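User: Can you predict the 3D structure for this chain?
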Amino acid sequence: MAGKSRRIRRALLAAMRIALWFEEGKSNKIWVGEQMGAALRTTWGRRTSFRRSSSVKGFPTEEKAAAALTKAATKKEAEGYRRAPSNAHELLWGRIALRCEDSDGVIRVSEVGSSVAMVKNPWGTHYPLPGQTIDLVYTSKGPDLVVFTAEEVAIVIEKLESGAKLLLRLSTPAGQTGNVPFVVK
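Assistant: Here is the predicted structure, written as structure tokens:
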């Protein structure tokens, strides 16, 4: 039994990610720390830009990498950054009926719920389909935001009231893009 709990703990450590965001005046930043085994990858930049900086640092053990992630996130929170919802995937499913996978730095739609509420789009109807990727979020309450993780989409959705409209730019594997309007539950 000890071996099984050790494997579960190791799997949890290997999948740890913390996303933080900062919005004040004209400043709109994102910081994502992700522990991958005994390595820590941090990515940061403006939420309105496709260009982000990143670094990877190795540690002797997975536990030390996890501790470094926690320490770095705590430091950012002390600087005024706010933590993104830890239940990002559940939030997307519950509020816009999309299940997504984002383990490789690209948000891919994996399932579209039957309760997905879309707004009639005057430029033609685009439907979300499994396999499409999400890279931009548009709302009437702020700038267009570039997204690479489910947490980044959840930051936006969490702040919207029920009934608010949201546009997601979806791309097919063939490179076709379309803006799909949703009504947030």
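The longest helix spans residues 62-78. Residues 6-14 have pLDDT under 50 and may be disordered.
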